Amino acid sequence: MKVGSMTVPLQGMPLRDALAYLKNIGVEAVEVGAGGFPGKHHCDPKELLKDKSRLREFSRTFEEAGIELNTLSCHGNPIHPNKEVAARAHEEFTDTCRLACELGVKKVVTFSGCAGDSPASQYPNWVTCPWPDDFLKVLDYQWNDCLLPYWEKAGALARENGVKVAFEMHPGFQVYNTASMLRFREALGDTFGANFDPSHLIWQGNDIVASIRELKGAIYHFHAKDTKIDAINTAQKGVLDTVPYGEESNRSWIFRTVGYGNGQDFWKDVISELRMAGYDDIISIEHEDSLMSVEEGLKKAVAMIREVIISEKPADMWWA
C-alpha cells in the first residue's frame, strides 16, 4: 500500500506546486479530479486529449515530481433526470476514461448516480425506506430503467479504454452501501467495484471492518476520510441529517480528518482488513474537515496513515 491523496483540496495551487507540497509531507501517489463534483482544477481531459504536447507535459509533471498518478476522478450523476446534467456527466466520464487510457491509469472513480422517480422528474430522488409501496416502484424504475441500462453501455466504454470503474458508495446515489454495491456487481460484473470511503458508511451505522470483509475482491480504491458522530444530536434526531455542513454543532455527524472521528486502533483494523481483503493500492486522503485548514488536515492525515499503513506483504513464514 502507498500513502496517497486527492489533489482537489489543493485546487488553489498550480499542479506542479501541489505535487511538490504533497511529496514534501510524505504522499507517494495522487488522485486527480477530472470533472464532476471534484472539478477540473488540475486536469481538463478534453483539452489534454486534443493536444498531445500538453498531454506529454502533464504526464511529465508527475514524473518530475517523483509522485505516481494513480487515479482519475469524475464524480458526476450520469442518470440525473435533467438531461443536460446527465449528458454533461456522461461526457466527462467518457473523456476521463479516454484520458486514463492515454496516461496508463487503470481506474476511474465516480458515483453510480441517482435517477428521479419517473421520466418526468426534475431532480434526483433517493429512496431510504420500502413503504409506502410507491417507494419500491421508484426503486424498480431507477435500477431497471435508468441505472443498469446506462452503466451496461458505459461499462463497455470503460473496458475499451482498459479501466476499472470504482463507485464511491455515497448516500444520495443508487450505490451507497455494501448491499447495493454487490447487487450492482452481480448484475453487471467486475468492471465495477467500490471506492471504499469509510466516512459515508460510518454515519449509516455500518461496521467498517465487516463491510470491507463483505466486499473482499470488490474494492478498487480507498478514500481515507473520517466521520465523527455527535452522540447527543444523533440521540435527538437520528443520523439522516439535512442541516448544512457548516453548522457543525447542530449536526448529527461531521466529516473529520483521519483520526479525529475514530482513533488509531480503528484505522489499524481498517488497514489490516484491507490487506486481508487483497487490497494493495493507494490509501487516498480526502480532506473535507471543516474544523481545520487543508494544510493541517492533510499533514495530520498523512502522519496517521503513515503510522498505520502496511506497505508490503510479508514473505512466506516458516510455518507456511
Which short descriptors sum up this protein?
11 helices, 10 strands, isomerase activity, alpha/beta, isomerase, 320 residues, TIM Barrel, Xyl_isomerase-like_sf, Sugar phosphate isomerase/epimerase
Overview of this protein structure:
By secondary structure, the protein is α/β, with parallel strands linked by helices. The chain has one domain (2-308): Alpha-Beta Barrel (TIM Barrel), CATH 3.20.20.150. It is built from 11 helices and 10 strands. The protein has helices spanning 15-24, 45-49, 52-65, 83-103, 134-160, 178-188, 198-202, 208-214, 231-237, 264-276, 294-308; strands at residues 2-6, 29-36, 68-75, 107-110, 164-168, 192-196, 219-224, 226-229, 253-256, 282-285. The protein has an 8-stranded parallel beta barrel, surrounded by 5 helices. It has a two-stranded antiparallel sheet with strand order 8-9. Helix 8 (208-214) runs parallel beside helix 10 (264-276). The longest helix is centred in the middle third of the chain and has 27 residues, at 134-160. The model has no long low-confidence stretch (mean pLDDT 96). Pfam families: AP_endonuc_2 (PF01261). GO terms for molecular function: isomerase activity. It comes from Cuneatibacter caecimuris.
